[in-house]
Amino acid sequence: MDEMKATSDDPAAAPLRKIIHVDMDAFFASVEQRDHPELRGKPVAVGGSARRGVVAAASYEARKFGVKSAMPSVTAARRCPDLIFVKHRFDVYREVSQQIRAIFHQHTDLVEPLSLDEAYLDVTEDKQGIGSATLIAESIRASIREETQLTASAGVSYNKFIAKIASDQNKPDGLCVIRPEQGPDFVASLPVRRFHGVGPRTAEKMARLGIETGADLRARPREWMQEHFGKFANYLYGAARGIDHRPVQPNRIRKSIGGERTYGEDIIADDAMREALNHIVDIVWERIEKNEARGRTVTLKVKYADFHQITRAHSLDRWVEGKAEFAEIGHVLLEALLPVEQGVRLLGLTLSALDLGGDEEADDDVPVKPEQQSFGFL
């Protein structure tokens, strides 16, 4: 996603919070290695095969060879000749995800899942009265290891933006704490491509404008940002200063439910696109079931290698009956676009016209400046 919504940057607009972002380490692949000891220590790809399809997840052993999620399986096999492909088991991943979320809820009801393997937690007021977000994060990671035999990494900070970045700092099986007084300098040291919301296209534009780091971005006035980035400018202005007042939202109400994947290498083969769409169907339908949602309209989103983007939609005069029909409509929309003359860099699928109200993107409000003070994380 290359854009986020903007809000005021009034320093008094929101209170200081204790936020944890928990991200499981190579989740799908780690579950497979846990359940199949013969796979431990070996390069594993979940999804696809050596001849076709798309990698859904890769173990750390495979990542050393440059194998990553959303990569065409043929490319992955070429980079890592010893790569072991295994079929995905989303029912198992969902069960483990529920175990992990139960651990989160032992500490707070303010849990905002982003996917099966990551979530934000607001522990400003924690149920167990521990008081320290760092100690809570350590307790959560220990409980996950004990109950699931899996590892998780966590970022602890005063807002969602920095906590999410921090959770990736010491992967795998790591913890990173960024206190309020450290936030601006931490952000200044980061490559802008690590900013949530800054996709490859925006990063390339920034590079052409001489912006490589958060410090480069912070040096530019808001007016300059507005000139070059439009409505994205307010978000960038705040992010470059470690600002983010978005609350953790455990019960976001949606007008639509969907998912999309941007691929590291463009997909050209028809079968690879069909396989990629199947993976998206699995992910999106899990979200639909979780929200107990019903909808009438299925929308396919395709972004080509030249960044030209199109959407195709089909609406029913009744609710989509189930996952099979949801997938069928998505594939009908895709087949109408095949074959493609150029590669596809993004595929997405959405169910809308729901019997729910609200805004799916409610978590993308932009940041406002936090108070700079000691916060008692330790």
UniProtKB/TrEMBL annotation:
Q: Name one GO cellular component term.
A: cytosol
Q: What InterPro entries has UniProt attached to this entry?
A: DNA/RNA_pol_sf, DNA_pol_Y-fam_lit_finger_sf, DNA_pol_Y-fam_little_finger, DNA_polymerase-Y, DNApol_IV, IMS_HHH_1, Rev_trsase/Diguanyl_cyclase, UmuC
According to the entry, every stretch annotated as the UmuC domain falls at 19-199
Provide a Gene Ontology MF annotation, just one.
magnesium ion binding
Note describing how the cofactor binds:
Binds 2 magnesium ions per subunit.
Which Enzyme Commission number(s) are listed? Answer: 2.7.7.7
Required co-factor(s) are: Mg(2+)
Per its UniProt record, what Gene3D superfamilies does this chain match?
A: 3.30.70.270, 3.40.1170.60, 5' to 3' exonuclease, C-terminal subdomain, DNA polymerase, Y-family, little finger domain
The GO biological-process annotations, alphabetized, read as:
DNA repair; DNA-templated DNA replication; error-prone translesion synthesis; SOS response
The main place the protein resides is cytoplasm
Recorded hits in HAMAP family, A to Z, give: DNApol_IV
| Family indicated by similarity | Belongs to the DNA polymerase type-Y family.
| UniProt protein name | DNA polymerase IV
Q: Please give the organism.
A: Alterisphingorhabdus coralli
